[in-house]
Hints:
Belongs to the iron/ascorbate-dependent oxidoreductase family. Keywords: Iron, Metal-binding, Oxidoreductase. By secondary structure, the chain is an alpha+beta fold. It contains ten helices and 14 strands. It has helices spanning about 20-25, 60-65, 70-85, 95-110, 115-120, 165-190, 200-205, 275-280, 335-345, 350-355; strands at about 55-60, 85-90, 130-135, 150-155, 210-220, 230-235, 240-245, 250-255, 255-260, 270, 290, 300-305, 315, 335. Strands 1-2-10-7-12-5-4-3 form an eight-stranded mixed beta sheet. Strands 6-11-8-9 form a four-stranded antiparallel beta sheet, with no helix packed on it. A hairpin with a 2-residue loop joins strand 8 (about 250-255) and strand 9 (about 255-260). Helix 3 crosses helix 6 (about 165-190). About 40% of the residues are buried. Residues about 1-15 have low confidence and may be disordered.
Amino acid sequence: MATNQLAPETPLHAPKLTLVKSLSESAKLTSIPSNYAYFTNPIEPVASDPEEHSIPIIDFSLLTSGDPAQRSKIIQDLGKACEDWGGFMLINYGVPESLIKAVMETCIKFFNLTDEEKKEFDGKHVFDPIKCGTSLHGRMDTVLFWRDFLKVIVHPEFHFPYKPTGFGELAFEFCKRLRKLVRELLNGISENLGLEECYIEKTLDLDSGFQLFAANLYPPCPQPELAIGIPPHTDHGLLTILAQNEIGGLQVQHNGKWVNVDALSNCFFVNIGDHLEILSNGKYKSLVHQAIVNNKATRISLAIAHGPPLDAIVSPAAELVNNESYPAAYIPMKYKEYLELQQINPLDSKTTLNRVRVQNL
């Protein structure tokens, strides 16, 4: 975890912003540049009790088995995970391991392109179809984060870099399968909320929903205790599906402590986004999470965010609002406007969500 101490020999700001991969591979790098030093206060302890802080596991195959009793039980488990944790491990989800591995390997090939080759995909705006960069907002960031990224809008229109060869075809199949998976999860979540099974699918027109493919690269860091991959934040949208290589680094907040998410094979991590918290009128909470770094191995993660169409106005479901007992806790806002608001707010826990929260509750 980051600390409030600086290394005794922290160098001056790097003269220009370079990709972290190139920075980390420099033979001269023995300490991080000062503009990568991340300060956090207070530092929450990492949970040590595995029983108290055991992340729920949801067996997706039970949700689609056709057995009413199994489906009812797993929907209850799904709702409890969303309420208590804001996320869960997902197993038996039906996406071939070979496909996930191929997408991951091709992401590595992309990040291994030269900096000049990757500059071709250097986007600036939140709605640029393809963006490759470093940190969060690049030169706009006061403190730089120890990660490089590729972000691509893949639905309702599919975009993707044309290199490495075959990258787009693999990503298209992967993202198509995830949309189907997310639809089933949201149907189960709708039922758990006491809504019609297809409520979220129909109300938010998921056929035209926004899907963002994000690949994150966290190279080895010479001073991991001083840097951060991504600071504490929540995701926009409804659900984010995360796959990672076997190098850990994801931490989620639970009962005031950080919990390490094990990098297990054949397992996705699913977290609740801000807009599912809004739609559920606060019954489910979007999950605060962060990425830490290490000094030994490169971590790769794929985070695929799923939201409504950009023009959709998201508000608490009318069926979950009672003006006396359960008033609406969030102000309706167009999803596109929320994403734009998120870009100008600091990446700090639930900063953006608090902007649409009704303050007098």
